[in-house]
Amino acid sequence: MAAPSAPRPPRPRKEPQPLVIPRSAAEEQRLRLERLMRNPEKTVPIPEKLNEWAPRPPPEFVRDVMGSSAGAGSGEFHVYRHLRRREYQRQDFMDAMAEKQKLDEEFQKKLERNKMIAEEQTAKRRRKRQKLKEKKLQAKKNKLEQKKQEKESDQSQEQASSEDDEDSKEEEEKEDDAEEPSFVMGRG
User: Rounded to the nearest 5 degrees, what angle is found at the Cα of 180, between the Cα atoms of 179 and 182?
Assistant: First the structure.
């Protein structure tokens, strides 16, 4: 017999979780999140995107070739039925893929058409903005030229009036000079 050992301390027992039946999808989601958050260090399995179903490819070598002889056994019907079902699935799959491809092509064409329309509208608006910009620049140039011409005409008028003033001043000075002799004789 083995020597009696010290009694082990009892393991801490987890409290049993009450059974909660979710009544709605939101409650079920809440319960799943609570269960995940109890141990946040545990990795969470994220499911991969499932691949689209595709029929298995036809066999390279067909072993059970059905003959054309009369009197086929009762088991042959089930084999035929499975082959027929598989062929129908394959044809349905091919039709669905063709339809999907057609829809994708139509969608791509529609995208291209929308893109072209958007580019045309953008180009039209760009031309319109450019035209307005050019009009504003032309108006500004015209205004500057008009101001320049007004200044030039004002200056020419001022020069003409100043020349007239200078001529009249010179005439007045000549008249003044005629009245007063520039020197006086006999004095001195």
Answer: 135
